[in-house]
Write a structure and sequence with these properties.
Distance between the termini: 47 Å
Helix content: 40-55%
CATH class of the largest domain: Alpha Beta
Shape: globular
Structural class: mainly alpha
Number of strands: 3
CATH superfamily of the largest domain: Protein tyrosine phosphatase superfamily
Strand order of the largest sheet: 2-1-3
Number of helices: 10
Number of domains: 2
CATH topology of the largest domain: Protein-Tyrosine Phosphatase, Chain A
Order of helices and strands: HHEHEHHHEHHHH
CATH architecture of the largest domain: Alpha-Beta Complex
């Protein structure tokens, strides 16, 4: 089953990147799949229902190999509205109750990841999260974790997100991360600055301007 999975993703890579990339791609993935035999992988996919073909490959792999790990689908979409569009009083009220209305449920999900990381399990556990580019939806959730548990500032988290693909995080994902920053500020009493730094806005990151 693992080899079948390798063939599928290898074919997908060849179609997208050309035949010359196939051999190296297969070698890298064969090494990673071999590592699965001694670990338990918790794979958190942030793909949405419109990306079902990519999602199905992973879902079927873990259905066929339940001893190797477990597949989770957390649909992450970001936020349409920017918290800075509201008065401070309204923004504070919304941030405190973020988990009650935000589609991404960042307060709950970030804490779940933390709990899993510190679980005492029989096998070494790997937590693997992804979307499509590794910058936007993944950057939103990862950036929230950086601020909550790795003591990073909003600026530091955003800087990491913006360099994964050498471009800025998508606007809706940025807004989701900003809402979580305000959640930490208002609900958890974190001393964080949730303003997007001006040097980032002036350095060609036009897609995150509001």
């Amino acid at each position: 089953m693992a080899e079948e999975y390798l063939n599928k993703i290898s074919k997908k890579s060849k179609n997208e990147h050309g035949r010359n990339n196939e051999a190296g791609f297969r070698d890298r993935w064969r090494k990673q799949l071999s590592a699965l035999l001694t670990t338990f992988v918790n794979l958190y996919s942030y793909l949405n229902p419109f990306e079902f073909t990519d999602e199905d490959v992973e879902l079927q792999f873990f259905k066929g190999n339940p001893s190797l790990g477990k597949y989770y689908n957390w649909i992450i979409v970001g936020d349409v509205v920017d918290p800075d569009w509201f008065s401070e009083a309204i923004r504070k009220e919304m941030a405190v109750y973020l988990n009650d209305w935000q589609l991404d449920h960042l307060p709950e999900r970030v804490d779940l990841l933390r709990k899993l990381l510190h679980s005492n399990l029989s096998l070494p556990n790997v937590i693997y999260t992804h979307c499509e580019a590794g910058t936007d939806r993944t950057g939103e959730v990862s950036g929230a974790y950086y601020m909550r548990y790795l003591n990073m500032t909003f600026e530091q988290a955003l800087s990491i997100d913006n360099h994964v693909q050498n471009r800025s995080i998508a606007k809706m994902s940025l807004r989701g991360l900003k809402w979580y920053c305000y959640y930490l500020q208002y609900d958890k009493d974190y001393n964080v600055n949730c303003t997007v730094p001006s040097y980032i806005l002036s350095a060609g990151f036009n897609s995150i301007k509001t």
